[in-house]
Amino acid sequence: MKTYFNYDNVVINIMKKQLNIIPDHGPSDIYIENLAKEPNIKRQLTKLTNDQYVKILEDYGAWKNIELEDYEENKLRLLWIAVFDLKEQL
């Protein structure tokens, strides 16, 4: 079953079984990094430009502008937001 994170016309499809691997509590960085390497996720994340990432992440307001210059980190940040937003909905 697919789940969909949709924000500002950016949609990320994540399989429910992929979401279930991510722990609800505690450190999850390694799980997010591994999920980002999954072909279906990697393909979606690479389609987005850094400007798209920055716009969404700025709306969340958790990072300084200098931090948002890192494209690879922005991918992981948005994936983390998407994962936990979807887990909260399930």
Largest sheet: 2 strands, antiparallel
Report the average pLDDT across residues: 93
H-E order: EEHHHHH
Question: Which shape, going by the Cα principal axes?
Answer: globular
- Category from helices, strands and their pairing: alpha+beta
Q: Widest sheet: strand order? A: 1-2
The proportion of strand residues reads 5-15%
Helix proportion range: 55-70%
Task: Count the E strands.
Answer: 2
Unreliable stretches (pLDDT < 50, length at least 5) are none
The radius of gyration is 12 Å
The separation of the N and C termini measures 12 Å
Number of helices: 5
Structure description:
- This protein has 90 residues and is an alpha+beta fold.
- It is 60% helix and 13% strand.
- The protein contains five helices and two strands.
- The chain has helices at residues 16-21, 29-37, 39-47, 50-60, 71-89, and strands spanning 2-7, 10-15.
- The protein has a two-stranded antiparallel ribbon with strand order 1-2.
- β1 and β2 (10-15) form a beta hairpin.
- α4 crosses α5.
Short description:
The protein is α+β, with helices and mostly antiparallel strands and about 90 residues long. About 60% of the residues lie in helices and about 15% in strands. The radius of gyration is 12 Å and the shape is globular.
Summarize this structure as a short list of keywords or feature phrases.
90 residues, alpha+beta, two-stranded antiparallel ribbon, 5 helices, 2 strands, 60% helix
